[in-house]
Design brief:
The chain is an alpha/beta fold. The protein has one domain: UDP-N-acetylmuramoyl-L-alanine:D-glutamate ligase. It is built from ten helices and 14 strands. The chain has an eight-stranded mixed beta sheet with strand order 4-1-9-10-11-12-13-14, with helices on both faces. Strands 3-2-7-8 form a four-stranded mixed beta sheet. A two-stranded parallel ribbon has the order 5-6. The longest helix is centred in the last third of the chain and has 16 residues. It starts with a strand and ends with a helix.
């Protein structure tokens, strides 16, 4: 059956307001000068869908924003990037989810977050068929989607599998209550893409191999763990593929996980091996890390492929 979209990206859509370098917040009403301020579409859905579109995939965005100036930026930017936004809902009387990120010179990024409209969205029955009109369905942001978390997410992923979609999943951060939302989803996730730190919080066990086993035992087909300076591990059954990091100058790691997921999906859509998917994912994340914000660095697929080839050769 022919699908209208390569990817449906469901979940957390955020406006990020980033500044760097921030050494400290000025006292009182004083002013400090910094080098750069940017606005970006972010979140485990928003950042991923923008990078996917830049990598040449036909995408639709499914989530919520408010009816404010932040929503105008988010929707306009995604539309200009070629993303179909017809299933994005605007929630009356609620702010668009947003984060202020003070990026330090060493790359640390303490954040102030307003949960906003993403807490007021779910995939209702009247749009489910349109949401599932895709080859890949990515759910991003579990734990920060108050209305979608839990049984609605389980139903969505099960429906996606029944519709023949390949499912991918990530979150923006794990807390003590996140596991109860994640556990029912695992048997419906084909590619499970948290960081090792998030995986360890969810599982309660330490170590890469231990976490691979933990999640595979609970139904995950392919466990993909990003590991910071240690690169990433893609575990499919008994197969293990380790992809090292590239030697780059890191400016800001905001959105690197979202970019990694986008590169992984793009590689899978091409039918590439897991090793080659991992390298395209790593190149995408590396480009984002080279600038400020979750959509920094990536221009298009040709540029990303060329950077990957150059970095792998060093």
């Amino acid at each position: 059956m022919t699908k209208s979209f390569d990817v449906s990206v469901v979940g957390l859509y955020i406006l990020d307001i980033l500044g760097r370098p921030v050494s400290e917040i000025p006292s009182g009403g004083n002013v400090e000068f910094i080098d750069e301020i940017r606005l970006t579409v972010a979140g485990t859905a928003g950042g991923t869908v923008v990078d996917l579109a830049k990598l040449g995939l036909n995408c639709q965005a499914i989530g919520a924003v408010g009816e404010d100036e932040k929503a105008d930026f988010v929707l306009n930017h995604m539309t200009k990037t070629g993303i179909d936004c017809r299933l994005m809902r605007q929630v009356q009387g609620v702010e668009t989810s947003a984060t202020i990120l003070n990026v330090r010179a060493n790359g640390e990024r303490p954040a102030l977050h307003c949960r906003g409209a993403s807490d007021h969205f779910d995939v209702s029955d009247d749009i489910l068929a349109d949401v599932l009109d895709c080859k890949f369905l990515h759910l991003g942001g579990t734990g920060l989607l108050a209305k979608l978390d839990g049984e609605p997410s389980r139903k969505l992923l099960q429906s996606a599998k029944e519709a023949g979609c390949i499912t991918t999943w990530d979150l923006v951060g794990a807390g003590p209550d996140t596991w109860k939302f994640v556990e029912p989803l695992l048997s419906f996730i084909d590619y499970f893409v948290p960081s090792i730190e998030e995986a360890e919080i969810l599982s309660g066990v330490a170590g890469v191999e231990e976490n691979v086993k933990f999640f595979q035992d609970r139904g995950v087909e392919c466990c993909v763990l990003t590991m910071g300076a240690e690169g990433s591990m893609i575990a499919h059954g008994a197969s293990r593929v380790h992809i090292p990091v590239y030697d780059i100058e890191v400016v800001d790691t905001t959105g690197c996980g979202d970019a990694y997921t986008a590169g992984l999906i793009a590689g899978l859509a091409d039918g590439r091996s897991l090793l080659e998917c991992g390298h395209l994912a790593t190149a995408s994340a590396s480009l984002v890390a080279s600038g400020l914000g979750s959509n920094a660095g990536i221009i298009n697929r040709e540029q990303t492929e060329a950077a990957m080839v150059a970095w792998r050769a060093t």
